[in-house]
Amino acid sequence: MTVVAAVDPGRRKCGLAVVCSEEGILFRQIALREDLVEAVRRMLQEYSPVELLVGGSTGSKEVVAELQATLDRKVLVVDESHTTERARTRYFQDHPPRGLWRLIPWGLRVPPVPWDDYAAVVMAEDYFKAVSRENSGETQSSPPGSKKEGPGSGPARKISGRSKG
Prior knowledge:
Distance between the termini: 30 Å
Helix content: 25-40%
Number of strands: 6
CATH architecture: 2-Layer Sandwich
Shape: globular
Number of domains: 1
Order of helices and strands: EEEHEHEHHE
CATH class: Alpha Beta
């Protein structure tokens, strides 16, 4: 049983999720950007994930640097291509439209609340799929945008954390 934490960084708000390889979603939250470090710290303390994933979107370098400066953790930067669209679909799977909203085509539906936490869930699920492919020997289909650095490195580019002490 593997547990990972994922962060979908944004300018004003960030999606957070903790996902277990066997039990699925354990935690979802949307945090304001200024509250991100404390929210991630609480998430790490409560769930003790083996990896901390951060989406590699525009502006993620600041988030990664801030997390590394304050937390004693390695951060794995992962590709988050198309996670927003897939997160929207996932939101509506969990919260099916009711009434007249059911008549609106899928492509035109927009959730009534922010769904950044679902983007973090999608990133964690993509990570598990990539690890599963890697463990089964499939090297042909690496996650889009991921870089392997050295033998035995994970499905994405590792950025080492700073040791405190």
